[in-house]
Amino acid sequence: MLTPDEARDRACAAIERAIKAGADAADAALSTDAALSVSVRLGALEEVERSEGADLSLRVFIGQRSASVSTGELDDGALDDLAQRAVRMAREASEDRWAGLAPEERLLNGAPPALDLDDGAEVDPEMLKADALAAEAAARGVEGVTNSEGGGASASRVVIALATSHGFAGAYALTSHSLSASVLAGTGEGMERDYAHHSARHRKHLESPEAVGRRAGARTVAKLNPARIGSGAMPIIFDPRIAPGLLGAFTGAISGGRIARRTSFLQDMLGKQVFAHGITVLDDPHRPHGLRSRPFDGEGLPTSPVTIVENGMLETWLLDSASARQLGLEPTGHGSHGGGVATSNLYIAAGTASPQALIGDIENGLWVTELIGQGVNPVTGDYSRGASGFLIEGGEITRPVAEITIAGNLKDMFRNMTPANDLEFRYGVNTPTLRVDGMTVAGD
Question: Where is each Metalloprotease TldD/E C-terminal domain found (predicted)?
């Protein structure tokens, strides 16, 4: 596996060959990885998988024409062929007046921020096997669990490099460690399944296998004997495990490409109220050990913490260089290599009320813990998802429920949202428990 310096040099070598082959400008992104994973089931080893690979993506520009190609081969001959192929393709491409590299004056200069993303840990299969077995054993030890889909543990290291023909070259390494368990409860048609997992950049920050396993078992048993409910309008509580999906729909709606094409339900809402008063949405690429932390974006621009929504007001679009040019604005450091945008450690700030307080005045509502399907319309904001979770009756979480559909419109959902005070940074995108009033539930 390449070191960061070696990966940066290979990316620069691809750029040099692209310019020699006739490109006016070019950028190259290289990712190399080495991963080890172990899976077990019913207390026995099922699989040990070790992988190592590389992917280099080269984008070239000839005037306002561009093309992108990729390869897994990094030797000089492969890079020569890649550059020549990319240039041939670009000459045949249609023109795009917005295409081009990021502004040279905006590129990251100097040392990147120290994010402590690589713990340098050496992990062997026996260590991962012990963790996977412990997680599964803890899950199977929960009363009511009847079978197992297995436990897993993995460790990986990735090196990411980016180079451009107008002066940027950078690289960094990151590690990832994860644990998971998935079990079954009940029998026959009454069987239920659930899981738990945890990931961290540093192995020392992982939850214990026993904690992951017990959570998987408890979640599964809690779903037994789900009730069916009638239809109607009611408050919905979104569990932090699935609530980040609402933020995903939001960031898609404020991406520069969608705004430039005028295909967003939040079109023309910059500087206006889009969430309830008091809600703040932030993106922090510099969070130490963050699962999506990064020192520069996919175009070589510096990243920095940004407040996307403050007190409910939309403060910025998410812009790469192409969409910024089209909208007459500046890129925001959210570019992805090859086009489009990507957030880093995105989250909704914690509110002031506890989850218990959010449900305390709900006479009839739902705590949703699982969503099914992709029923979000990015143009209109219409939202409809299959769901399961638990009934809220008289301010208390009572019976499990399944086979229901929840629906609303994201514009209304955002404005009727209340965050709890239980924010934890467990995923790439994080939210506290969220209450959304006025949604429609379709049951029996």
Answer: 231-443
